[in-house]
Amino acid sequence: MKKLLALLLLSPLVVSEWNIKTEDDPIDGSWKYLLGISVDETKRMIVRKYNDKWEFALFPNDSFICGSSGSVYVIFKIDSNSTFTNRFEVSKNNSSVYLREGTEHTFSYKKEGEFGKKILSKDKFWLGTSKEYMDFKSFFNELSKADELFMRMTDSCGTRTDMRFVLDGFKNKINQL
User: pTM for this structure?
Assistant: First the structure.
């Protein structure tokens, strides 16, 4: 019993924190967002629904994110599923990256394996052309069932940032938005 207690006390706790926050903006008004803190407590993830569209932002704790053409690719791994990749826009102050539902920024989606198809939407256009992009509802549904989200971002300057979030409590919080 003493060994078990000592092991528990000495083992690092792997916990991410999920909180609903409210922002009062003089122009946009009041809106809620979900804030996630990474396992190493240095990175943040923000999810919000604004004007019935989802927005997803990552704050990798990098002093300057280099983005060729204003964007970077982020590789996702949810639990032990295959990876998938999506393009994020770099913020104007180069401190974060973001993805908005229903904009051209969600296009250029790359999937690597069957799991990526689960969170893929496709718009069909004239003459058989189509654009693929992340389906936020499917993405958040997968996160709600998962234990861990791992993301890797490598910017055009070669800076690699790994972000790991434990998803305990994510489902309850995302449903409050």
Answer: 0.81
CB under 8 Å to 106, separation ≥6 — which residues? 86, 99, 100, 133, 134
Asked whether the beta carbons of 98 and 78 are under 8 A apart, the reply is: no
Written as six digits, the tokens of 42 are 């240095």
- Name the more confident of 12 and 20: 20
Could you list the residue range(s) of the whole structural domain that residue 74 is in? 15-174
Tokens matching residue 67: 């983005």
> Has residue 5 been placed in a domain?
no
Helix, strand, or coil (residue 172): helix
Rounded to 10 degrees, the C-alpha dihedral 171/172/173/174 comes to 50
Count of the separate structural domains present in the chain: 1
Q: What is the pLDDT of residues 23-42, one digit of tens each?
A: 888 987 888 999 999 999 99
User: What CATH number did the domain enclosing 146 receive?
Assistant: 2.60.40.1880
